[in-house]
């Protein structure tokens, strides 16, 4: 599960290389974006399940909401097995939702001097993100005084890659896709309890450098068309933000030159962790990457 996002990006890249003429994926650009449509009201999302016998939440929830609330998968949570690095889970019914003390979400909050409630979780999917949102509301962490809600979401949602495939083929910008509908439902639910919050989508950092990946000991493995395909997949997030009227932070563009093939002290993502560029998990952001992404997100929220 931890490697699914990276594998999905690689699979999209390989598919693009097989179906497009050389260079098309790497040079394609997004078509002009249409005006945001009037989308129908989102249905009421179910409340988080009430499970008996759970220990008390190890946090003091802000009664009217934390200033900043974040959602995402393992590229945000960075939840490893080292207890010295982990914060306990805010999702009391899922003990696996531990987050790193120094992930990009908490780094950004420190830069902005804001209180944060981080509801990211390794393995976040289309189904679970709704429940994490409801849990944040039930815990009092998302509420009227929340100023910013930031999501880096889609890596484990198949509909994200459907939008990305259309971008690879340079099709007209999609409107009303399942991925956008999922984000629209989240937006409307957030608005219902935090009407003044700015809702932001952040793209993922780069995994492919100039059509190459760099596992340890195997430098510069070619992935023809990979960079263009990865760009196209991440463009799904920018398109969704535009269509839905959400704020957007382009972490992907900011990570240019900092992919797995960069020098260890410049690398934001590893394919395999190594001592000179430590990371909690393979094919995930490095410790340096989380610090850098935190700065990018903080600057995008100023």
Protein described:
37% of the residues lie in helices and 11% in strands. It has 302 residues and is of the alpha/beta class. It has a domain at 4-21 and 61-210 and 222-257: SGNH hydrolase (Rossmann fold, 3-Layer(aba) Sandwich). Strand 7 and strand 8 form a beta hairpin. It is globular. The two termini are 34 Å apart.
Give a short synopsis of this structure.
This protein has helices at residues 4-19, 24-27, 74-77, 104-112, 126-138, 158-168, 178-193, 226-244, 251-254, 287-301, and strands at 68-72, 86-87, 99-100, 116-118, 148-152, 198-202, 212-213, 221-222, 247-249, 269-270, 284-285. It has 302 residues and is an alpha/beta fold.
Order of helices and strands: HHEHEEHEHEHHEEEHEHEEH
CATH topology of the domain at 4-21 and 61-210 and 222-257: Rossmann fold
Beta-strand content estimate: 5-15%
The name of the CATH superfamily of the domain at 4-21 and 61-210 and 222-257 reads: SGNH hydrolase
CATH architectural arrangement of the domain at 4-21 and 61-210 and 222-257: 3-Layer(aba) Sandwich
Output mean pLDDT.
Answer: 84
Keywords for this structure?
302 residues; alpha/beta; 10 helices
Walk me through the topology.
Blueprint: H1 4-19, H2 24-27, E1 68-72, H3 74-77, E2 86-87, E3 99-100, H4 104-112, E4 116-118, H5 126-138, E5 148-152, H6 158-168, H7 178-193, E6 198-202, E7 212-213, E8 221-222, H8 226-244, E9 247-249, H9 251-254, E10 269-270, E11 284-285, H10 287-301
Parallel strand pairs: 1-4, 1-5, 5-6, 6-9
Antiparallel strand pairs: 2-3, 7-8, 10-11
Helix pairs in contact: 1-6, 1-8, 4-10, 5-7, 6-8
């Amino acid at each position: 599960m931890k490697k699914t996002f990276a594998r999905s990006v690689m699979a999209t890249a390989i598919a693009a290389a097989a179906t497009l003429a050389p260079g098309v994926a790497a040079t394609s650009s997004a078509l002009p974006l249409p005006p945001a449509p009037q989308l129908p009201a989102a249905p009421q999302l179910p409340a988080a399940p009430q499970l008996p016998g759970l220990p008390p939440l190890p946090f003091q929830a802000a009664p009217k909401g934390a200033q900043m609330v974040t959602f995402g998968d393992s590229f945000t949570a960075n939840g490893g097995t080292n207890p010295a690095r982990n914060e306990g889970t805010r999702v009391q019914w899922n003990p696996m939702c531990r987050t790193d003390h120094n992930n990009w979400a908490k780094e950004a909050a420190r830069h902005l001097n804001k209180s944060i409630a981080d509801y990211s979780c390794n393995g976040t999917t289309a189904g679970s993100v709704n429940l994490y949102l409801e849990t944040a509301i039930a815990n009092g962490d998302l509420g009227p005084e929340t100023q910013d809600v930031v999501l880096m979401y889609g890596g484990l949602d198949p509909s994200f890659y459907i939008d990305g495939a259309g971008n690879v083929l340079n099709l007209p910008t999609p409107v009303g896709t399942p991925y956008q509908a999922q984000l629209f439902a989240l937006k409307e639910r957030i608005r219902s309890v935090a009407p003044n919050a700015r809702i932001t989508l952040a793209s993922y950092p780069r995994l492919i450098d100039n059509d190459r990946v760099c596992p340890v000991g195997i430098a510069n493995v070619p992935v023809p068309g990979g960079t263009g395909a990865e760009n196209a997949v991440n463009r799904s997030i920018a398109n969704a933000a535009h269509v839905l009227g959400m704020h957007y932070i382009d972490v992907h563009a900011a990570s240019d030159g900092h992919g797995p093939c960069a020098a260890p002290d410049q690398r934001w993502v590893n394919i395999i962790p190594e001592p000179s560029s430590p990371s909690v998990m393979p094919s995930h952001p490095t410790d340096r990457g989380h610090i850098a992404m935190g700065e990018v997100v903080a600057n995008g929220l100023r």
